[in-house]
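Re: beginner question about structure tokens

> Can someone show what the tokenized structure looks like for a real chain? I only ever see the sequence side.

Sure, here's an example I had lying around. Input first:
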Amino acid sequence: MVSEAAVGVTWWGHATVTVRDSGVRVLTDPLFAPRLAHLRRRGGPVPPMAALAADVVVVSHLHADHLHVGSLARLADGTRVLVPRGAHDAVPALRRLRRLDVVEVGPGDEVKAGPLTVRAVPAAHDGRRLPFGPRRSPALGYVIEGEARTYFAGDTGLFDAMAEAVGPVDAALLPVGGWGPFLGSGHLDAGRAAQALAQLGARAAVPIHYGTYWPIGMDGVRPHEFHSPGDEFVRIAAGLAPEAHVHRLDHGESVELGGAAL
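And the corresponding structure tokens:
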């Protein structure tokens, strides 16, 4: 059982979240750009400079909307950044970030961050640097354990033994959509994310990875896929995981997960 207001979560958009636990700030997949290649930020403002404040950063996989070198370059000197094993070879630009403490990890690895333990867990997703990255690197999720156990899923599909691989968690930050009108394999939509929540048994969930970036020129193509996944997740999770508290946040909005929230 976690303590009152043990964990704070702020969703900045896409897969970028700040988790505050035991006085430590963990920032996930930082993406602080108004545009990325053919994608334009259509939901919420670019996060403020204050959102860059982090004691440790976790990167789930090497796709440019999750490992964004320009955003990492804006972090404070000495910030510890966990990246999937093989990232330095696959993304040579990482080597220029010498003022950061970049550490490669794989599934099962644990890293201490003050009173927290951050554990890398597997994800079902293509972890290569796209579009034609020849070097394979694992896609990861992370479990942040302190006063509570918070699972950041990164980008993943539903896979067998997901609950076993992740382990018991109190809160789950789950992707429920994407950046285009069609989701390929290795992704969760609202329905599959609700199934994942039911399997994990988490008592709180926050839907992420939707309603932020959309391809330029495709505003009128299946716009419901941009706007609706968060609300759909709330609705479906109410049936599949009725004991879980689902918090659908707006961009930049925070929630304290403790007491009745977990």
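Each token stands for a local structural state, so reading them left to right follows the chain. The longest strand covers residues 7-13.
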